[in-house]
Specification:
The complex is a heterodimer. Chain A is of the alpha+beta class. Chain A is built from five helices and nine strands. Chain A has one domain. In chain A, strands 2, 3, 4, 7 and 8 form a five-stranded antiparallel sheet that branches. A three-stranded mixed sheet of chain A has the order 5-6-9, with helices on one face. The N and C termini of chain A lie far apart (about 75 Å). By secondary structure, chain B is of the alpha+beta class. Chain B has two domains: about 30 residues; about 140 residues, no CATH class. The chains are: A alpha+beta, B alpha+beta. Strand 2 of chain A pairs antiparallel with strand 1 of chain B, so a sheet runs across the interface.
Chain lengths: ~220, ~200
């Protein structure tokens, strides 16, 4: 008797479920997107920067975490990797680095003229990460059944760490030296148009840079 | 009664003693030796980035005269059968206004005595890539979102920043600043009269 009642109840529930699902059209979209008005913060700054060098870089940020059983028993430490607890993600990203000379404080102190010779003494070049792009299409992630997927906050955190890794690698890229050389390539044609012969033009910088100085010249 | 107790087999005593020993060992592990502990956790050792690869290097001659830094809060909402999903992200970008010297005409600069005349290229957007997407902050997420959804949010942030920053007022400010900075530079080089014009 009891068994028959259970079967009847189960059949009734199944019928109800089928009744709810039936009117849903198969091809129709199951959701609609609504975009709301964004909040905006803006900072406007007047400047005079001559960008002389552009470097495009690529990096893949990988992250993996596993579930571990850690502890201590009878003064014996153990740290065991549990099966089916892995998560892995690889995020490809591209960034553009640009080196520039700041001309906002450029004045007579930066110009030395002697007859038909001219020397421009330029301030230290600086480097900025002007843009970055996450290759969303080629992000790959592998998540074990027992784990939750990567959240947007986690992925953003890895991307920010990748960005910092790119900034940290700037001294090894030699972009500051390139910026100094390229400044001459940009400014010398301008000075020749002003009537100076190329051999009479000198583009000079304040001093040679050391690796420690370069860190100071990077915009974070 | 006494006869029943005497009939208790030796294996029963072994079981009782084993249970007692187990309880004592468990109590000792739990209370006496404080160093014993077991925990289940996720081992997170941060990211492992590959070395930074240089894809291209080029000499440029871009003058920037106005930069507009933006923080844009962009969200998208999805209404489904089982509730509403939402994804909110904060994008950062800097729109740079100025001109590229490669666009200058061959005779953009001329000198006559102590007078210099410069015809500068039109002031506009220096680079189409101005969003620093790797700096993006996740603000709120409910539901499951795909890379295509994030790409759509990026494009929305891009359009909004562009519309807000590349305005006639900002372009005029950049143009005025360019005129002032070039005048200052040529005066520092010894030219008393400086004429600055922009290409139409």
């Amino acid at each position: 008797m009891k068994k028959n009642m259970m079967i009847t109840l189960a059949a009734a529930l199944l019928l109800c479920a089928c009744k709810d699902a039936a009117p849903q059209p198969q091809a129709a979209p199951q959701y609609q997107s609504i975009d709301t008005v964004p909040l905006l913060i803006q900072q406007v700054q007047q400047c005079a920067r001559l960008y002389t060098t552009e470097v495009k870089v690529h990096k893949i940020v990988t992250h993996d975490d596993v579930v571990r059983l850690r502890g201590s028993l009878l003064k014996q430490d153990f740290n065991l990797k549990l099966p089916l607890g892995d998560r892995k993600i690889a995020i490809p990203m591209d960034a553009t680095l640009k080196a520039y000379i700041d001309f906002s404080q450029f004045g007579e102190k930066n110009v030395e003229r002697s007859g038909d010779k001219i020397t421009l003494v330029l301030p230290d070049p600086r480097v900025a990460l002007t843009s970055s792009k996450i290759d969303q299409k080629h992000i790959r992630q592998y998540v074990a059944l027992s784990r939750s997927r990567f959240t947007d906050a986690e992925m953003s955190s890895y991307e920010q760490q990748g960005r910092q890794a790119i900034i940290a690698s700037i001294p090894e890229l030699g972009i500051v030296d390139m910026a100094r050389e390229n400044a001459a390539r940009v400014l010398v044609p301008m000075l020749t148009k002003l009537g100076y012969r190329e051999e009479n033009i000198t583009i000079a910088f304040r001093k040679d840079f050391h690796k420690d100085d370069i860190h100071r010249l990077i915009e974070q | 009664m006494g006869k029943k107790n005497d009939n208790k087999r030796p294996t029963d005593w072994v079981k009782v003693l084993a249970l007692l020993a187990f309880i004592l060992v468990f109590a000792w592990l739990a209370f006496a030796d404080k160093d014993n502990h077991v925990e289940l956790g996720v081992s997170d050792e941060g990211i492992s980035p590959t070395p930074t690869q240089i894809e291209s290097i080029r000499v440029i001659g871009e003058w920037e005269f106005l930069s507009v830094s933006n923080e844009e809060l962009v969200d998208t909402v999805r209404k489904g059968l089982f509730g509403t999903d939402q994804l909110v992200r904060i994008y950062y970008g800097t729109v740079r206004l100025g001109f590229d010297m490669r666009q200058a005409s061959p005779h953009w600069l001329s000198v006559s005595g102590d007078t210099v005349t410069a015809v500068l290229p039109r002031v506009g957007l220096l680079s189409k890539d101005f969003i620093d997407e790797a700096r993006t902050r996740a603000f709120y997420e409910s539901g499951q979102w795909t890379p295509a959804d994030r790409e759509a949010l990026y494009r929305k942030a891009y359009r909004q920043m562009l519309a807000r920053c590349v305005t006639p007022a900002n372009l005029k400010t950049a143009r005025d600043n360019a005129e002032a900075q070039f005048s200052q530079m040529f005066r520092a080089m010894g030219y008393t009269t400086v004429n600055i014009r922009f290409e139409p």
